[in-house]
Every structure is written in structure tokens, then in C-alpha cells.
Predict the structure of ADP/ATP translocase.
Amino acid sequence: MQQQQQQQQQQQQQQQQLLTDLVAGMVTSGIYTSLTYPVHRVKILLQTQDANPRILSGKVPRYSFVHSFGRLAKEQGVLGLWRGNTPYLLRHVPSISMSFAFKDAFREAMPRYDAAASPFSALAANAAAGAAAGALSLALVYPFEFATIRLAADLGSGGADRQFGNGMLSAWVQAMRAGGPLSCYQGFGVAVASMAAYKALYFGLYDTAKNLLLHEDGRRLEVTPTALLGRTALAASTTFMAASITYPLDIIRKRLVVDVGSDPSSRQYNGRFKAAVQRIYAREGLKGFYRFYSYDMVFRLGGGVLLTRIGTQDHQDDCAAGMFGVLRS
């Protein structure tokens, strides 16, 4: 009886600790996301400006990374640097817990493989779980992602000059009036492919390599500076590989989201993946698929190092993986 009570108390303590860690992680992520959002906004603007009619017509000069922050503050006010931050928070913060919860659930439903004995089977299982988790979590928060992209890409100074409305709700209403209730999922197919591929590569590479490289005698390594450095380096390298491979899909997805017009003939891509690929390559070459790439890598890897924290128990999330993974946007 006493042993049963102790087990119940231990379970309650573990649940409380898990909830505390989850809330702390979400609050920390929310603060970090808001503080660094101007960089994310400039990223979207630079990735999509070659699809913006005002840029293409010459009405608005092209933006460069170095001058973007000052120009936006001058043209749209200092708060304009945070245009789109609200839907970004609503999309970004919940996806942290959802991605890991879904990944663990999918992985539990799959056969277990020993990474040392069956590395390819373990990689496939981890990749499949990561891909399914990424796709499902994205489906739930995609309207917020849609609003973030449109608001961040908007070059209007305010009021009637705004291209995509004055806020998240108006961005949704404008899209639905033009194309129906599913318009807020414009670009979703490419987004799912991009996110699923990224999560599959990221979690597959990270989880498999972690099991092969970061264990001793089947046990998790102790928390030491060497272990922290090793796990951080592993998370950074897998992030770089996964992001580099899937980056062009992210560019295409954002171009499709901001491709608007009063009728299909006035749109550049008309919602088609193939048309977007052909148009971008014809006008911008291969570099068109890697707009803002170098800055993005520095920002993502630097943010991951800043936020890395190691879990010490067998069933805790690997926060080194988590912090790098959620910086994918």
C-alpha cells in the first residue's frame, strides 16, 4: 500500500515537472520569438519580394538585408517590424509541444529497431514519425502561418495602402473573399511536403545518430560539457543538412501564399507548384530558391546554440534537438 502511494506520488511529481518544463519552454520560446521576429519578417520579405507586384513594377525599390530594418521602420513605423508577430506566435509556440507529442506518439506506434543493429530501419522509423508529426502539427496551425507570411510580406504603409489587410483576421477575410474558405490553406501542399521532408530528415538523422554516437553501454551520457557540446554539434549539423535540402520548398511555398490577383490570369503562378518552379528559375536562376539562405543558417544555428538544454532522463525530450528544430520556420 505504501509502495503504491509512493509510486503515485512519483508519477504526480513527474507530471508536474513535465508541465512545468512545457510551460517554461513555451514562455521562453515566445519571448525569444518576439524579440527576434523582425529578422523573421525581413526574411519573409526578402524571400517573397520577387513575387510582389509593387517590387516588380518598380513602384517600390528592392530591399536588401542590411537596409531592410531601417527602411521598414521609416516606411511603416517601428512597430511595423513586428507586423505578423501575433499569428507567428500562435503558430510557432504551440507547434513545439505538438511536434514532440505527435512524434513520440507515432514512434510508439511503430516497430522498435536497435540503431546499432539495424541503422537503416531505425532511420526509416524515426524519419516517418518525424514527417507525420510535422505534417499533422502544421495542418492544425497553417492558417496562422498563412497570415504571418502575408502580413510580413505586405509593403503597404497602413490603412488602404495595405496589400493583405490590417491584421490577421482581415488577411483571412481578404483571402476567403477572393478564393473561398480554403484560401487560407493556399500553399499548404508544398508546406506539408517541405515540413514533412524537414522533420523526416531532421528527426531521422538526429535520433538515429544520437543513438549511435551519444550513448555509452546503452545508457544516456551524463550531463557534462563534452556531452552538451556533442549533442549541440549533432543538432546543429542535422539542422543544417535538413534545412539546406528543403529550403527551396520553403521559398516556393511563400511565393504561392503571396501570389494574389483579381483573376487567375493576373497571378504569376496561379497556385501551381510547377509554374512557380519554372518562373522562379527562369527569372532568378538557382539563387532564387535560396533567398536569405546564408543569413537564415547563421540565425537558426546561433539561436539553437543559445537555447540548447540537455535532458537527463531516458524519456525526456532532447531539447537540443527541439530548440534547433522549432527554429525552422
